[in-house]
Amino acid sequence: MNIGLVIGSLRRESMSRKLATRLIEIAPASLRVTELEIGDLPLYNADLEAETPAAWTRLREGVRGSDGVLFVVPEYNRSLPAGVKNAVDVASKPAGQNLWPGRPVFVVAQSSGPLGGLAGSFALKQTLTGAGANVLSHPEIYLSRIGTLFAQDGKLVPDTQEFLRGALASFETFCARFAKR
Fold first, then answer.
1. Which stretches within 66-138 are classed as H helix?
2. Which are the contacts of 174, defined by CB distance < 8 A and separation ≥ 6?
3. Does the first or last residue of the chain, that is N or C, have fewer Cβ atoms within 10 Å of its Cβ?
4. Which backbone phi and psi does 87 adopt, to 5 degrees?
């Protein structure tokens, strides 16, 4: 299955990117994970549809070609990063061409604080549900104190790795269920 990956932090050395890299490594073999780049997306503005920006077209084609989309996101100010919201908006427009309805999605949230990105994850799930996506409701992933979940070699500590491996297997099953329809 083709899985699109949206990394919510634009920094090259972000914890979301570091986590996403490790998720790709431990994902079930049947999942081919490809990043859907969001850093260069112009803010959604319907006026730009007349000459659709190439970055919008690239994102839309990536979402369209995905059997599911995995979001790995930090929490910004008790909500989702603006770039992630913009990506959801771009893939839901123009009217009548929304790519989200029926698409399976999974949100993995992280933060350096104690709540693991709970509020940001909730905001993203609410946005995705509003756009019509099928959001995997369980397991829910809120990784708190993210920096402590990596060993000195940069890999996830064993307990976290096993937990996330199981969560990705659940996402694989979820995506397969929708692919059969």
1. 82-91, 118-131
2. 68, 104, 106, 134, 136
3. C
4. -60, -45
